[in-house]
Amino acid sequence: MFDLVDKLQSKALETPVRRETITSVLFHQTSQCTDLVDEAFRFEGINVPTMLNNSDDNIRKHVRDAIVEIVIIELNLSHDVTRDMERISPLLPNNASVIVIGSEDAISTIRNLKSMGFYYVFWPITKQELIDFVRNVNSNRQRNSGLGKDRTAKKIGVWGTKGGVGASLLTAELALDLAKTQKSATLVVDHDFRGGNLDIFFGLKKFEKKSVSRASIAANIDATFAASLSKKLDEMLFVMALESNDLNELELKDYLRMLTMQLEGQYNFILEDLSRGSNSKQDLKHIAEQYDTLVLLIEPTVSSVREAKRVLKNLELSNSTARCLFVLNYTITESAASVTLADIKSYLGREPDVIFPNEPKLSKAILESKHIYSQKSAMSQSLHKLTALLLGQVDKQPKSSFFHKWVKRAK
After folding, report:
1. Which of 34, 53, 146, 269 is 20 to 30 A from 291 in CA distance terms?
2. Arithmetic mean of pLDDT, 223-236
3. Which CATH superfamily is domain 19-142 in?
4. Cα Rg for the chain, rounded, in angstroms?
5. Number of neighbouring beta carbons within 10 Å of residue 69
6. Distance (Å, rounded) from C-alpha 315 to C-alpha 294?
């Protein structure tokens, strides 16, 4: 006997409703936003985003552990959307499209976020407007166009004003802090083509630089080839160190810049170790034109402070837009310093942004692979403060700390 009911039921089971698949996450601040996003996605048959409270820790953990195509960040409670996104940006993978929802109605906000590679949606918004916007962003992803496709790493140079001032150590510790503490994808670029101690500061054994020949620089350079010349230290940390028997240092430096240019879209930060032995006027010109931040490392000696003044003057003459952070490293005891903190301020016209106090047992700790970023000391506090400045975070260091007492005494 022909059973019409059975046939209808079977046919219905054979043609399930196809859901639109967009992998996304919402970092929210208000229930109004979560309700609107949830209802909009469900009504249109799109996979509902993972909903998490908007906090740096949640962003840091989730977007690195999960494959996310679109990240939606609600900043309706923000007092400064641009500044908050500058802080959040290093926590986000460059391959995710980012939509910021905010109630800040200013053309400058749209322009600032666009320059960072983020979309901006003004709140309040209707469910249909949101879905149309999300679909447009997803369409841009499929066509490899729109905002986000050109989001690149922040380029930071650590410039040592003289040999032995600690540029390589600071580069390594900054990279470790960014990669392991902040979960920001970081590439360290070594500009010492003859030797250097980055491997010691990272605690690497049997580390060898990648050897390149004159024939290799004629090969087609793409992101895959450039990545093959870097060494993976951690899921978030990579090092590129080259050497050559038939290329001079200027040729190697130009080649290194070509390689890092190919990798700018894969990292949040590119840190370049510019120890004093390999610095040149060409480096300063490149910094002025290409870098986001220069960390100028000095020690309390006349020669170091004079070199810092020279670097500043060169950057000024080049109309550099790079932000310059002064770091004073007490490689010697305060009593042995030939210039005081007041002398430095008078000569350079500004105080150091960060001060690293002298640590007599530092060399022993380095050889034992005890990293500054993971310790609880005055030096680690200084390092975290510098990292926070690079991330655009507000310094929350307690005023009663040993570090502040030491700085007050040094003044």
Report:
1. 146
2. 91
3. Response regulator (3.40.50.2300)
4. 25
5. 16
6. 10
